Amino acid sequence: MQDYSIILPAKNEAESLKILLPKLTKAHPKAEIIVVNDGSTDDTLFICEENGVKVVSHPYGIGNGAAIKSGARHATGEILVFMDADGQHKPEDINRLLHKIDEGYDLVVGARSKKSQASIFRGLANSFYNKLASYVTSRSIKDLTSGFRATRANKFKEFIYLLPNGFSYPTTSTMAFFRAGYTVSYLPIEAPKRIGKSHINLMRDGVRFVLIIFKIGTLYSPLKIFLPMALAFISTGISYYLYTYLTAGRFTNMSALMFTTGTLMFFMGLISEQITALLYKTDTISTPLQATPQNPIKTTNQTVTESEG
Fold it and tell me: Which domain holds residue 110?
């Protein structure tokens, strides 16, 4: 088995880390364990140092995606394992992910069962994302938003610049792997109930979920989103024109607007398709974070403090 690093983004997860870290260090004594402390105000940092794991600290909260990127930049393992710090992922499932990587896959995702969803709303939302992503990629996607995954470090770092600082890094990375033609596998898991309070806000993140729906399509194949909408506008414009011509003998402004909107939407999708193809050039690989006057990195024992660059 290749060297691997386990990365946990954490913001005020001291209560769950008290339980999780001892289990993790016992189950994976040879692994590099990195907790990215994303501006926590509780005892997260103290708990990590007490358990002897490597800590990358942000001076303030930047976001879950930013924490993932920081952890990946500082990891030395050939395989990266990402898991939540809230106790929803079991340390014993990591070996199952790694075995799949050994079989030759580039990305292995822990797919949660329906009963493992945090709420009915999130379960319905995740089900919709999976179906939409499956349509866009023409592949069966069992869990698009799962944060429990293992991947080859060199492949993951090719797309690190695409990852958002905030929400939805799993969505972005999964779609990037599919787009690049890398192999992806899903492994069924049971996710226990999280320890502590969720950082998901129903109203605020509900808007983000809607944006993710469009992001999924535009990340992978924009024409699969734009083309049906363009055809709908164009066909509506033509149908309305025929209706008004037969009933009133004239061509209305609404018909022209519908037809023009559909045509513009088609060309926007065509341009977006070309831009997306350029984004996934495989010769663009992010380099590890380097210390500069604008981006200092201080190391004390096993603790790293990183400023946003």
Answer: 4-201+285-306
Domain presence at residue 85: yes
User: Within a domain: residue 278?
Assistant: no
Taking the whole predicted model, whether its pTM rises above 0.85 is answered as no
What CATH number should be reported for the domain holding residue 11?
Answer: 3.90.550.10
| Count of other CB atoms within 10 angstroms of residue 259 | 19
Q: Is residue 84 one of the residues assigned to a domain?
A: yes
SS3 content of the chain, % helix, strand, coil (to 5): 50, 15, 35
Count of structural domains, the chain: 1
Contact yes or no for 276/219 (Cβ under 8 A):
yes
pLDDT tens for the chain, 309 residues long, are 679 999 999 999 999 999 999 999 999 999 999 999 999 999 999 999 999 999 999 999 999 999 999 999 999 999 999 999 988 899 999 999 999 999 999 999 999 876 655 556 666 777 888 888 888 888 888 888 889 999 999 999 998 988 888 877 898 899 889 888 899 999 998 876 656 555 555 556 666 766 777 777 787 788 888 999 999 999 999 999 998 888 888 888 888 999 999 999 999 999 988 888 887 765 544 444 444 444 444 433 445 555 444
Calpha distance 280→181 (Å, rounded): 10
